[in-house]
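Protein modeling request. Please complete all fields; requests missing the sequence field cannot be processed.
Requester role: graduate student
Desired output: 3D structure, C-alpha cell encoding
Chains: 1
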Amino acid sequence: MADETDLFAIPLSYRADVLAGQVALVTGGGTGLGRAIAIAMARLGAKVFICGRRADPLAATVAEIRAHGLLAEAIPCSVRDREQIASLLDRIYTEDGRLDILVNNGGGQFVQSAIDLTPNGWQAVIDTNLNGTWNMMQMAAQRWRDHRQGGRIVNVVLDIWRGIPGMAHSVAARAGVVYLSKTVAVEWAPLDIRVNCLAPGVVETGALENYPDEVRAKVRRDANVQRRAGSTIEVVEGCLYLVLPSSGFVTGEVLTVDGGQQLWGDVWAVPKPGHFRFSS
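Delivered output (280 residues):
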C-alpha cells in the first residue's frame, strides 16, 4: 500500500488535466477524507473550494494545495446554515461563474450505544449528516437549474448495509442520504445532474480515533474479508471515478469501497457484549 504521508506524491489513475477548467466544492475539506479528495481534484486540474466550520484546517489545506501551484480557496461555512451556504455559492459564482462538482463529505458522529443516545446527540448528527447534506444538494441544484448548467454530486456516506452497532444516529442519517440521493437522481436527471453516493468501510483517515482503544485494533483486523483498513487514496479514487466522464452513465448509485465489509466482517464501534461472542 502506498505511503500516504504526502498526498501529492501518490500516483493517481487519471490524466493530470482531466478536470482542467472545472470548479469543485468539497465540504469538510480541511481534514481527513475531504482534504484528500480536494487535493486529488486540484491535482487533476480543478479549482477547488473547500468549506467547513473551522477556518484553520481549511486555510492549512488551501496553503498546501497552492504551494504546489494548484488552485484552491477556503470558505468557512456550516452546512446546517442555509444563509451561509447561499453566501458560499454566491462567492463561487461571482468568482468563476460555474460549479461543476459538489462532494458532500462534511459530517460527524460519535460512538454511543443507541439506548443511551440523548435527544441532543441524535439531533446534532441528523442535522449535520442528513439535513446538512440536503441543504448543500438542493441549493447547488437550484443554482444549476437557474444557470442552465448540469452538475455532479457525490455524497459520502458509510458502509451501513449490515448496521454499525454504536453508530445508530449516523447510520440513520446516512441511510436517509442514500435514498434521498436515489430519489433526486431521478427528479434531477432532466437538469443533467448526476447524484451518487460513496460508501467507505473502515479507512485510515483519522476517523478510527472515534472508536474506543479496545475496539480500534479489532476493527482494523476483522472489519472485512481483506483483514485490513483501507487507505485514503483507495477511497479517493472511487470519488474521482464518480465525478469523471468515465462514470457518465452512472447515477442514483452507491459505490461501496470497503474490502468486502458488506459481505463479511465484524464492526462494532462499541465493545461487543458477551451475548455475541461464540463459545468454544
